[in-house]
Amino acid sequence: MKINNFKIFVLVIVTISLASCVTQSVSTITSVEFNESKNQTDYFVLPYGTVSLPGKWTKRDYKTVSRQQFFTNKDSIKIAIAFGRINNYEFNTDGKLKGYDFVRAYYEWDSNYFVETHGLKRLPIETDSINHHMIYRIYGKIDKGEFDTYFFIGERNGNINNYSISDTDKWTEKEKVEFLKSLFITKKNE
């Protein structure tokens, strides 16, 4: 355990050192590890973000354009995770939008794409201006059939966490919302 923590510490230091030397692009270090004693899958993309998924999740495909890493669990539930900086989006290249202002602008930008391009519907489910996050649903019929995905966007210290749960009837809406929130909101008693 100490060796793994030491390796992570060294990787973080190297990443920070390299990141400070580069002005236009940032090198990232990614890792996925199942922690059997905690029964959680830890995924990190340094220097942008980390997340602990409850249970065992298997890493699947990766979409380079959206920087989404996909995972599935034993129940075949599919989620996507993306981390990034707030100034890496066309609507916020100057980085002026921060906190909940960024989250709201991201929702408008992202959901409008689905509405205008694919004729889907959008529905804000939960907003939190204090903790800088929002959960929304994009749904409807598209060429390949039904589309029903729950999205979470959260901002913290200039970094964004973007999570989504794809079509599944194995979880209720409440379970999906609670799962997405649990990935971003840290528990104070741990």
Structure description:
27% of the residues lie in helices and 41% in strands. The relative contact order is 0.12. It is globular, with a radius of gyration of 17 Å. The longest helix is centred in the N-terminal third of the chain and has 20 residues, at 2-21. The chain is an alpha+beta fold and 190 residues long. It starts with a helix and ends in a 6-residue tail after the last helix. The strands form 2 sheets. Strands 4-5-6-10-9-8-7 form a 7-stranded antiparallel sheet, sandwiched between helices. Strands 1-2-3 form a 3-stranded antiparallel sheet, with helices on one face. The protein has 3 helices and 10 strands. The model is unreliable at 5-24 (pLDDT under 50). The chain has helices at 2-21, 99-118, 173-184, and strands at residues 29-35, 40-46, 49-54, 57-63, 68-73, 78-85, 121-128, 133-142, 145-156, 159-165.
Throw out a few tags for this protein.
single chain, 190 residues, alpha+beta, 7-stranded antiparallel sheet, 3-stranded antiparallel sheet, 41% strand, globular
